[in-house]
Amino acid sequence: MSWTEPAIPSLRTARLILRPATPADWPAFLALMTSDRPDPTDLVYRHFGTGPRG
Q1: What are the backbone dihedrals phi and psi of residue 3, each rounded to the nearest 5 degrees, phi first?
Q2: What is the mean pLDDT of residues 11-24?
Q3: Structural domain boundaries of the chain?
Q4: Which letter, b or e, does each residue of 1-25 get, where b requires 16 or more Cβ atoms within 10 Å of its Cβ?
Q5: Is pTM beyond 0.70 here?
Q6: Residue 51: left if φ>0, alpha if ψ -120 to 50, beta else—which one?
Q7: Where are the alpha helices (H) located in the chain, listed in sequence order?
Q8: What is d(CA 46, CA 28) in angstroms, rounded to the nearest whole number?
Q9: Rounded CA separation 19/21 (Å)
Q10: Residue 54's pLDDT is what?
């Protein structure tokens, strides 16, 4: 999964600036952004496309 922004200043800001790079990324993006308690680690992994949940 890829995202359009190169950095995540904060989880709060990430909710405003991150956008899915492709239409196929929207379901996971919406699930992550609408979660009551999103996992910041998961957000970073998804953003950079690395990590155990990459």
Answers
A1: -125, 165
A2: 63
A3: 11-48
A4: bebeeeebeeeeebeeebebeeeeb
A5: no
A6: left
A7: 11-17, 26-33, 40-48
A8: 9
A9: 6
A10: 43
